[in-house]
Design goal:
Chain A: Its cofactor is thiamine diphosphate. Chain A: This is 2-oxoisovalerate dehydrogenase subunit beta. The structure holds 2 protein chains of 2 kinds. Chain A folds into 2 domains: about 180 residues, Thiamin diphosphate (ThDP)-binding fold, Pyr/PP domains (Rossmann fold); about 120 residues, Rossmann fold. Chain A is built from 12 helices and 14 strands. A 7-stranded mixed beta sheet of chain A has the order 3-2-4-5-7-6-12, with helices on both faces. In chain A, strands 9-11-10-13-14 form a 5-stranded mixed beta sheet, sandwiched between helices. Chain B is of the alpha/beta class. In chain B, strands 1-4-5-9-8 form a 5-stranded parallel beta sheet, sandwiched between helices. Chain B has a two-stranded antiparallel ribbon with strand order 2-3. Chain B starts with 10 loop residues before the first helix and ends in a 15-residue tail after the last helix. The mean pLDDT of chain B is about 95. The chains are: A alpha/beta, B alpha/beta.
Chain lengths: ~325, ~325
């Protein structure tokens, strides 16, 4: 089997889906001739032509809006926004139209589209090229939010996202693009959206993390009896896997690089507090980014949840 | 000199257009009454005064061309073929509505009519129209997309993004601006550096034309010509129809920003009696026939209101439906 990094795995998923289904089209800034700023779509323009790998003007709102129209007509558009921090101009199209066409029309018009975008810290740029605002999009009923944590699940999740009947925001952790290689099979396989995986079984504490933090957590918990949950789909969230784990361990730590306040950790903590409080032995701890814009260069190391902070949280909750 | 109506369309088609205009007008007047009674809630934006645009434009399009519009779109849906009783039920929020009472006044959709909304966000429909047109061209189905919008929407970024795309990719979109002179209470002159909306397309090398939007036949001829040009050339075109809304922006708008004299002037140009007069003058219909059409519209609307009143509300559990597949 081939060892691929996440960029290669996503590229392979796109290529195979485009070959399988001629309704699948890619659109975005520099995705075609240029191959994408992170080279994710490299070679696809040459293979599938300019009608299916479409270089767009710098118009994020029109990228997402056009994808809604294409999807409503019966195509399967996969749009790329160059960085999550560039999506805010398209927020309107995503939130007011993509997310709601199905509800408004009672299922007679739908928007089966994917918006892929690199996200999170990873290239040591400040704020807009580096931030993790996934929680905004989890507050959008009608949109699914998916975050892979490695090359293997990136391919399977993206294939599932392209085939999904609902709009999917597919957040690709830039830090992981070329960080790890895994065995990634050729040919189709899908991982179900809305289903978490146990990334590491354990008994004393549940740790929830996704994207690049998942990789960091996996190293930080070495030596602890920790069960690590990788949600993979942030919305709709797999509460069942979460609650089953917490009922077993009695302790919960949530790690995310997004700012603490109203981050997804708050929702996860509230769910556990509401549904499983009698199983808890100690406080729920969130290890998160501070409530500031993502800083530049060296300060990012201070911003991101460090292995030390993660282990300190584990040590604290394990005292109970 | 105007050409005779019979040289443009057969009698039956002319009469049908008159029926649609009257039905549209009476539908809106009926909505106003139902809103006052509290049967229609939320916001209600009425089309009275602009009927010549919806009727003339729809007649100039093919039946399977897509139509997208903004939030003043009841008439456009009805003229396209939506049943008045099911549109009324939709406005009431009843489950017999065309979107089962979940879309409401501003979000009418019907794929069987190639009618895709209904957009409450000003300018929200532009990029979606571009995407539909891309898919239509990609599929080589010969359909075009008619994207209606108001003068206010021309100041949104999506207007400019979408004109650029439509021309760049040579997409079959017919943009139709219904310029009724006001974005809520702010006049075009106070909101637009270039109030002639049709001239704005020169920055995108898109041809355009202005038409007198109170004349249903003028609108019909302009749209028919432009729609065929768009279909044959596979390129966008923009038509600006100059029109006027007789009522406020919504039922909640007292309309203090315009003078009574201005409103009266435009009411003297009312497209419905203007078309009626031509039909009678050119002996296509008698006054008695036209009055009969109005009476028939009133019967249709009495039925629509009764249907909406008697229809059931959605079940509470339906709030969970159609959010995800």
């Amino acid at each position: 089997m081939t060892q691929l990094n996440m960029v290669q795995a996503i590229n392979l998923a796109l290529r195979e889906e485009m070959a399988r289904d001629d309704r699948v089209v890619l659109l975005g800034e520099d995705v075609g001739r240029d191959g994408g700023v992170f080279r994710v779509t490299e070679g696809l323009f040459e293979e599938f032509g300019p009608e299916r790998v479409i270089d767009t003007p710098l118009s994020e709102s029109a990228i997402v809006g056009a994808a809604v129209g294409m999807a409503a007509y019966g195509l399967r558009p996969v749009a790329e926004i160059q960085f999550l921090g560039f999506i805010y101009a398209a927020f309107d199209q995503l939130f007011t139209h993509a997310a709601r066409i199905r509800t408004r029309s009672r299922g007679r018009f739908t928007a089966p589209l994917v918006v892929r975008t690199p996200y999170g810290a990873g290239i040591k740029a400040p704020e807009l090229h580096e931030e993790s605002t996934e929680a905004f999009f989890c507050h959008m009923p009608g949109v699914k939010v998916v975050v892979p944590s490695g090359p293997y699940n990136a391919k399977g999740l993206l294939m599932a996202a392209i085939r999904d009947p609902d709009p999917v925001l597919f957040l690709e952790p830039t830090r992981l693009y070329r960080m790890v290689k895994e065995e990634v099979p050729e040919g189709e396989y899908t991982l179900p959206l809305g289903k978490a995986r146990i990334a590491r079984p354990g008994g004393a504490v549940t740790v929830v993390a996704w994207g690049s933090m998942l990789q960091r957590v996996m190293k930080a918990v070495e030596g602890y009896d920790a069960e690590v949950i990788d949600p993979m789909t942030l919305s709709p969230f797999d509460g069942e896997t979460l609650l089953d784990s917490v009922k077993k361990t009695g302790r919960l730590v949530v790690v995310h690089e997004a700012p603490l306040t109203c981050g997804l950790g708050a929702e996860i903590a509230a769910t556990v507090a509401q549904e499983a409080i009698l199983h808890l032995r100690g406080p729920i701890i969130r290890v998160a980014g501070p409530d500031v814009p993502v800083p530049l260069a060296k300060l990012i190391d201070h911003y991101l949840p460090s292995p030390e902070r993660i282990r300190a949280a584990l040590d604290e909750v394990l005292q109970y | 000199m105007e050409s005779k109506l019979r040289a443009i369309l057969p009698d039956a088609e002319l009469i049908r257009m008159y029926e649609q205009m009257v039905l549209s007008r009476e539908f809106e007047e009926s909505c106003a009454e139902q809103y006052t009674k509290g049967h229609i809630t939320g916001f209600l934006h009425l089309y009275s005064g602009q009927e010549a645009v919806a009727v003339g434009a729809t007649a100039g399009l093919h039946r399977d061309d897509y139509i997208l519009s903004a939030y003043r779109e009841h008439a456009q849906a009805i003229v396209r073929g939506a049943e008045p009783r099911r549109v009324m039920a939709e406005l009431f929020g009843k489950r017999t509505g065309i979107c089962k009472g979940k879309g409401g006044s501003m979000h009418l959709f019907d794929p069987n009519l190639s009618f895709m909304g209904g957009y409450a966000i000003v300018g929200g429909q532009f990029p979606i129209a571009v995407g539909l047109a891309f898919a239509a061209k990609f599929r080589k189905e010969g359909r075009i997309v008619a994207c209606f919008f108001g003068d206010g929407a021309a100041n949104q970024g999506t207007f400019h993004e979408s004109l650029n795309w439509a021309r760049l990719w040579e997409l079959p979109v017919l943009f139709v601006c219904e310029n009724n002179s006001y974005g809520i209470g702010t006049s075009v002159a106070r909101a637009s550096a270039l109030p002639d909306i049709h001239r704005r397309t020169c920055g995108y090398d898109i041809p355009s034309e202005r038409v007198y939007g109170m004349d249903v036949i003028a609108v019909y001829e302009a749209i028919k010509w432009a729609a065929e040009w768009v279909r044959e050339q596979n390129r966008p075109f923009l038509i600006e129809a100059i029109t006027y809304r007789f009522r406020g922006h919504s039922m909640a708008d007292p309309g203090k920003y315009r003078s009574l004299a201005e409103v009266e002037l435009w009411k003297s140009r009312d497209p419905v009696p203007a078309f009626a007069n031509r039909l009678v003058e050119e002996e296509i219909a008698t006054e008695a026939q036209l009055e009969g059409i109005r009476q028939q519209a009133l019967v249709t609307l009495a039925d629509a209101v009764k249907f909406a009143e008697e229809s059931p509300w959605p079940e509470d559990s339906e709030v969970w439906e159609d959010v995800y597949a």
